Amino acid sequence: MSANDRTEIHDFPELVNIMHRLRKPGGCPWDREQTFESLRKYIIEEAYELVEAISERNIPNILEECGDLLLQPVFIAEIARDEGLFSIEDVLGSIITKLIRRHPHVFGEVRVKDSEGVLRNWERIKQAEKHQQENRDSGSSVLSGIPDQIPALLKSYRIQEKAANVGFDWPRDNALPVLDKIEEEISELRAEILQKEQVKTEEEMGDLFFALVNLCRHLDLDPEISLQKANRKFINRFSEIERMIEKHGKTWDDYALAELDEMWDIAKERTSWESGEL
User: Fold this and answer.
1) Taking the CA atoms of the chain, what radius of gyration do you get in angstroms?
2) Is the torsion defined by CA of 33, 38, 40, 43 positive or negative?
3) Which residue of 31, 73, 182, 277 has the smallest Cβ count within 10 Å?
4) What's the domain count of the chain?
5) What is the rounded average pLDDT of the residues 140-161?
């Protein structure tokens, strides 16, 4: 059968079989050399590429990046199978069992009113699972299970989210107390900056970031997306200034800061019109 004659309908077992062939003797040398540890960077990279494709609402890229990300756990499972640890069937069985167990409002008799109730019930089920583990002295905290290596912005969001799911949170219908907390943190940060206390300044800066993430959560905003948008906005405006400087045949050193501020205002207006902000 030629490549042109091959059906375009594919399924999950086909992907697993391809990965198995790549890892077999006579398969791909690079694939055969990979380990759990060597694949870590690719897992992170593929996840970020999918997030970027979603942010750009690029459907073809979303489709492609979903496939690239899906490959990683299949790859991991194939390595594990070679080492006699577990198989892709074990992975599927684990997640299927977990989904059913943690959705008793769908597969059982539990009743919840809204998504907030779902999240609270989810955390209660997770805690019950943790208490059933042999080692009850470790990993039983409400805040356990958050990877140490995820970005700090996301980690702070997940910490607050988990705490909120057990009722430790500001009132959900009022963001003003969170704003008051931010103003308090800014005041404390200012005091340490004036005192030139570097260690304490770093601590207060962290507290301010944490409070800002909390405000995002209360406003139903994703802090990562908010910051990414701000990054893109700065890049667009900065690039506009670069084009103006190049157009005049000058360099950055030819401009005083006040002149650059004026150019920033022009770039801000131009990019705002282009992006539909005005």
Assistant:
1) 25
2) negative
3) 277
4) 3
5) 85
